[in-house]
Amino acid sequence: MKYIYLLLAIFSIVLLWSVINPKEGFTCFLEIIPAIIGITILALTFKKFRFTNFTYTLILIHCIILFIGGHYTYAEVPFFDYIKEVFHQSRNNYDKIGHFAQGFVPAMIIRELFIRKKVISNQSFFKFIIVSICLAISAAYEWIEWFVSIASGDGGDAFLGTQGYVWDTQSDMLFAAIGAVTALLSLSKTQDRQLITM
Predict the structure, then answer these.
(1) How far is CA 56 from the centre of its chain?
(2) Model-level pTM?
(3) What pLDDT is stored for residue 101 in this prediction?
């Protein structure tokens, strides 16, 4: 439990930093609300289903990515402005980190949930279904971005974060897919070791 309290403390500190003088208050709210909803769900279900510390750590990392994006807006994260200049990129690509994480972390959450709840008996479709769910999450998030942008007009532009890139939505979903596949290929054995110790 001490480790969980440590993760919660880090979550709270970074969340507090994120909401103090953000670049745009409305965008900050939109970017951090998924993390707040997620942590609420995890807290409400903690006694019924406790994930491994490994998965909780990944969730925290994803939340921190959201908080940074909320504080600065995804298009104006300073370090990625620096990268943009050094590598002569046409845009600030911090949002691609966010969308990579949008596939990477949910893949590990879904994988642990499926293994422990024995959701899929045929293991040959296991990875395909996990990646498909991650892509569905990514597509749903793109719909939310689209709806918010239409509903709020100029106020939603920073949330949408296309920076004039016509293929932003498609590349966001591609990065989520790459994130999910990368997580499954690189962390499955580590997660399995964590599951054995539970």
Answers:
(1) 13
(2) 0.89
(3) 97
